[in-house]
Amino acid sequence: VKYTIVDKETCIACGACGVTCPSIFDYDDEGLAFVLIDDNTGTKEIREELEDDVLDAYEGCPSDSIKISEDPFHGDPLKFE
Ligand code: SF4
């Protein structure tokens, strides 16, 4: 896991990811999640010590809105789908 991004179109604002990995995920005014470190563009490499937490958040997202990749997303959550 090097990059992550939230698909805000499908996020249901459940609040799980920010609890699992608060250094990476936060919520906007509507409660929708976004990636803190790069303004949800999926372009900034995740620090190695946070990778396990990001993976936990990815696996725990009930709407599969968290995307992960070895390559940057450049703002498009569906880039690799
Ligand atoms: Fe949205 Fe998924 Fe995070 Fe819940 S866990 S707030 S559905 S991105």
TrEMBL record:
Domain (4Fe-4S ferredoxin-type): residue spans on this chain: 2-30
A GO term for molecular function: iron ion binding
Pfam families given in the database record: Fer4_13
Coiled-coil parts of chain: none
Named cofactor requirement(s): [4Fe-4S] cluster
Gene3D superfamilies recorded: 3.30.70.20
Source species, domain of life: Bacteria
Keywords of this entry: 4Fe-4S, Electron transport, Iron, Iron-sulfur, Metal-binding, Transport
Function: Ferredoxins are iron-sulfur proteins that transfer electrons in a wide variety of metabolic reactions.
Protein name in the entry: Ferredoxin
